[in-house]
Amino acid sequence: MIKVQGVGFSYPGLESPVLQDINLEIRPGEFLALLGRNGSGKSTLTKLLNGLLIPSTGEVVVDGLNTRDDKNLSRIRQRVGLLFSNPDNQLVAGIVEEDVAFGPENLGLSANEIRDRVSWALSVVGMLDYRKHPPHLLSGGQKQRVAIAGILALKPRYMVLDEPTSMLDPQGRDEVLRTLIDLNREQGTTIVLVTHFVEEATTADRVMVLDQGKLVMTGSPLEVLTRTGDLHTWGLQAPEIVLLCQELRTLGHNLPPVLEGEQVVKMIRTLMGG
Amino acid sequence: MMNSFTFGQYIPGESYVHSLDPRTKLYLVVAAMVAVLGVNTLWGVVITALFIAIFILAARVPARVFWSGTRPLLIVVVITALFQIFFVPGEVIYRWWLVTVTDAGLKMGALMTYRLLMVILLAQLLTFTTSPLQLTDGLERVLRPFSKVGIPAHELAMIMTIALRFIPVFFEEGHKITRAQVSRGADFRGGWLKSAQNLVSIIVPLFVRAFHRADELALAMEARCYTGGEGRTRLHVMVMSPADYCVMAVTTGVVLFVILSGL
Question: How far is it, in rounded angstroms, from Cα A67 to Cα B29?
Fold first, then answer.
């Protein structure tokens, strides 16, 4: 469990705090989506979770390890994998498998163990066939999957992804999202997906919304994503399906809020009497 | 631009030389360079040339690849040779206006041409048959004993790895910036002064972005538990085979023979 207790953070030299009084818990095995517009402080929060930044006030505790203690940092970073949005800026080596090996190499594992982890991580993200490729010949989605494999090879318990799809085309976004869902369901990896694309939160177990450095809402996707008005004030746009249902409701149709396309199709069919 | 200039490129292959350990190749190339720079007689030239030729032939890299890597450097070889021919004092064998050619000058010119050509060929032999990553690993291992006297072997190797990784990224970015500038009306034709000015408009954004990338890369490396070279292991463990020891022994023998016998 990652516990964030009363965390505030301000960058040195800047007056206004980026984060204020954040309290949250990340439970093992869950898929948590963290929503927020640009500048809401969500990137800063991700860097606090693995000790790249240390809170100005409050504590971040990962499985009982406080990020404030330097001695804990390497263990925390192995537990909490952090992925950034630009895949190009996080691949270190000129060959895919060498890059995935970078993390395990840093842990000082044996060559055999490293080889096993590299093969496993690349097969989980479906990039095993590309192990000898140089990254610059891959597509954006493929690069990001390699970057995910690079984190996976550390065998982290929690995986924090800071807008992993924001630099990708729609196909790349799908690839990466599907990989994350599989990871969560099949490998049991805890996923913290930070994003400003509201649609990406629909499959999450829980959704949190961050605005102006404060946690403004926590709930299930259905609870959070159907609040079109609130979402709007937080600088987020509700999913199109939610908007569609709302339109239909204003037209006098009785529709419960839903997030899945197929359900909506079914309901509209019954409405039309077909 | 990158295709016409093969010097320093890796030419993948399965040859005997390709399969040698990078450390062996580093040793071979450096030792052979020392021998070549030390030779003074025709016999020395013949022996070192034969020795180097064996490895160049065994590398099974097409001769035209060696040629296209050597060609751009020929001008340096020619100028150096001419300097030797015209300016080394000795018995004059030809004189015309201000130009004098001496026998010692001719000999030095020929020798210098041979030496430079061999150094160029050896450097190419190394890079053609060794992938950049292998080369980096090899250098790190070879330099590691010197880290006690302040040579940062691991850091140098890491810098090389990252540089190699980002060369294509920067090439692509350079193209992108150029296109962006052209689409906003920049004109990249014109004389060299104009080109130089235009280059600034590409290099400045390229640098700004490079620093931004470096920042993010550093964070990503830290997030992946990187704390420097200490305690780090490698995916590929370099293993010296009997063939490696054999090549090293023969190289040592030939080089010592050439140098000690004063050939």
Answer: 49
Q: Is B121 in the same domain as B90?
A: yes
Secondary structure of residue A52 in the 3-state scheme: coil
Q: Where are the domains of chain A?
A: 2-238
Contacts of B221 in chain A (CB under 8 A): 92, 102
Q: Which domain holds residue B76?
A: 22-130+238-260
Cβ–Cβ below 8 Å for B220 and A90: yes
Cβ contact (<8 Å) for B217 and A118? Answer: no
Number of domains in chain B: 2
Residue B103 forms contact with A (CB below 8 Å): no
Nearest CA in chain A to B220: A90
What ipTM was assigned to the predicted interfaces of this complex?
0.86
pLDDT digits (tens, 9 = 90+) for B144-190: 888 888 888 899 889 988 888 888 888 888 888 888 888 888 777 77
The residue ranges of chain B whose pLDDT is under 70 are 1-8
Q: Which of B160, B235, B237 to mutate to test the interface with A (most CBs of A within 10 A)?
A: B235
Amino acid at B198: N
CATH for A2-238 is 3.40.50.300
Instruction: Report how far residue B121's alpha carbon sits from residue B66's, in angstroms, rounded to the nearest whole number.
Output: 7
**DSSP letter, residue A208:** E
Extract the tokens encoding B3.
């295709």
Tens of pLDDT, residue by residue over A135-162, are: 988 999 999 999 999 999 999 999 999 9
Is residue A91 within 8 A of residue A118, CB to CB? The reply is no
pTM: 0.81
C-beta neighbour count of B105 within 10 angstroms: 24
A122 in helix, strand or coil? helix
Alpha-carbon span A105 to A83, nearest angstrom: 18
